[in-house]
């Protein structure tokens, strides 16, 4: 399924690796006036209590939905980071539904006169969606910084953090298909200046 097929709106992918700071950069783009479709937020809506996708997740991943009918995200994360087959199974449940919602939202934005949309997706490149983009913004940090930030953020040991990082394509490989790169190693202001430059290149910021 393609994201949009033929379209007038320009769709630019925004991606990175776990703990690279993609969400921070996404918020910076929003603060500059960019329109962002967040794949993670769409996925969260899909797994709200009572949703068909959550029922599928519960069947495929027993023990990840609590008695109140809510998704136990920590339990699901432990399952999907245990191996590629588990990640593929979750992707098969959520990915088609996310793309349907992206199509719907993009058409609505196009009708509203929006010309450029950022599609924020952690697995943009892993899922091959970068081929459908009109450009890709990659949020990058060196491997040692990524590991340290993930351990600090999620309270993980080095071995588990490394396992989760390896579940995604290496950031160095993603650089090969990136149109623009945001080096998020330094200060927030340094990162913001890079975001401003990219946003201007995309026609924003006057």
Please characterize this protein's 3D structure.
This protein is of the alpha/beta class and 206 residues long. It has one domain (10-201): P-loop containing nucleotide triphosphate hydrolases (Rossmann fold, 3-Layer(aba) Sandwich), CATH 3.40.50. Helices cover 50% and strands 12% of the residues. It contains 9 helices and 5 strands. It has helices spanning 22-31, 39-46, 52-60, 73-80, 84-111, 143-154, 158-166, 171-174, 188-201, and strands at 10-16, 35-38, 116-120, 136-140, 180-183. A 5-stranded parallel β-sheet has the order 2-3-1-4-5, sandwiched between helices. Helix 3 (52-60) packs antiparallel against helix 5 (84-111) and helix 6 packs across helix 7 (158-166).
Layout of helices and strands:
Elements (H helix, E strand, L loop, with lengths): L9 E7 L5 H10 L3 E4 H8 L5 H9 L12 H8 L3 H28 L4 E5 L15 E5 L2 H12 L3 H9 L4 H4 L5 E4 L4 H14 L5
Parallel strand pairs: 1-3, 1-4, 2-3, 4-5
Helix pairs in contact: 2-5, 3-5, 6-7
Kindly report the spatial arrangement of strands forming the biggest sheet. Answer: 2-3-1-4-5
Q: Work out the helix count.
A: 9
Examine the coordinates and then state which fold CATH places here, giving the name of the CATH topology: Rossmann fold
Mind telling me the C-alpha Rg? 17 Å
E-strand count? 5
The CATH homologous superfamily corresponds to P-loop containing nucleotide triphosphate hydrolases
Indicate the overall shape.
globular
The CATH class turns out to be Alpha Beta
Straight-line N-to-C gap: 35 Å
SSE pattern, N- to C-terminal: EHEHHHHEEHHHEH
Mean pLDDT over the residues: 92
| SS-derived structural category | alpha/beta
Total tally of structural domains? 1
